[in-house]
Write a structure and sequence with these properties.
By secondary structure, this protein is of the alpha/beta class. It has a single domain, classed as TIM Barrel. 37% of the residues lie in helices and 18% in strands. α6 links the parallel β5 and β6. The longest helix has 18 residues.
Length: 234
């Protein structure tokens, strides 16, 4: 199937999942996870109606941006982020999904102040408690939200999670439900520089389950672009 055909199928699945959950499909942002897809393939997806692109790697994002790959779509950063790469993203991407420490938030604030802007971010919660995953433990969320008050050039707009790899989508429901509960509980509290607007969760194998649990951003790569071909290790 073509990228356009895959995209249409994903959009139909999102609409069906949203309606089943009693939600408006227009409230859910589909983010194409464009890692390892070249500028031409990204442009093809945008031309077919992809509203937003999410990159995992800073260097890849910069290279494709130079080629005009993202024109006509919103641009997000969805991968793990090192502090020394923050300067390349602040002011370039609409939203950074993967903020998992006060130190990273501080650096984003520093770079945003230099540019005279406010950078929107999501806080990444490690709902599965996996050592191999980035994100902080769920019980640390109030501490992270309170810390946002120190950073006037950062705006926390919600939460993100990457659950453990599971064989069946429904196995991820407890992790999605946990993030949703954190989103609700902490959205009722008043923190400076915090607006609980977005829950970014769900990928190609489980985005419909994530939507059932309240996700309003889903990050879908393989289901749109096909399986990635990783270079062989030498």
């Amino acid at each position: 199937m073509t990228i356009a055909e895959n995209l249409a199928q994903v959009q139909a699945n999102i609409a069906r999942a949203a309606e089943k959950a009693g939600r408006d499909p227009r409230d859910i942002l589909l983010i194409g996870a464009t890692k390892m897809n070249d500028a031409d393939r990204v442009r093809e997806a945008i031309a077919a109606g992809l509203p937003a692109c999410g990159e995992n790697r800073v260097q890849e994002l910069l290279e494709k941006n130079e080629q005009g790959a993202y024109e006509g779509a919103r641009l997000h950063f969805i991968g793990s982020l090192q502090k020394n790469k923050v300067k390349y993203l602040v002011g370039l991407v609409e939203l950074i999904h993967s903020v998992d420490s006060v130190e990273l938030m501080r650096e984003i604030n520093r770079q945003a102040l230099k540019r005279g802007i406010t950078q929107d971010i999501l806080l990444e919660v490690n709902t599965g408690g996996e050592d191999s995953k980035s994100g902080f433990a769920p019980e640390k969320l109030p501490e992270m939200l309170a810390a946002a008050a120190e950073f006037p050039a950062v705006s926390v707009r919600g939460l993100m999670t990457i659950p453990p790899i599971c064989r069946r989508p429904e196995e991820n429901l407890p992790y999605f439900q946990l993030l949703h509960q954190l989103f609700i509980d902490n959205g009722e509290k008043k923190y400076d520089n915090v607006r609980m607007d977005f829950m970014s969760m769900g990928m190609s194998g489980d985005y419909e389950a994530a939507i059932a649990c309240g996700a309003n951003m889903v990050r879908v790569g393989t289901a749109i672009f096909g399986h990635r071909i990783y270079p062989a290790k030498s």
